[in-house]
Amino acid sequence: MASNSEIRYLNPPQAEQKRKKYCRFKKSGIKYIDYKDGDFLLKFINEQGKLLPRRLTGTSLKFQHKVSQAVKRARHLAILPYVADGLK
Known about the structure:
Layout (H helix, E strand, L loop, with lengths): L23 H5 L9 H4 L12 H4 L3 H16 L12
């Protein structure tokens, strides 16, 4: 009988493979981020209404500035809330 130290697998266990992050704006060729499109901007804010950082979304620095400006403009026009309890 095999003891616990001699457990063998048919396929070796694999750790999670991290996907490379990419900027969706560069990949799609988007040059302008429309602040009037609230549904699209909801992808870049969390449940509390805060902006998601670049390290989570994979957005480049140039487009992160544009996204943040668009979210701020949408908040000013009441398209997006400043603070939300359960936004999503």
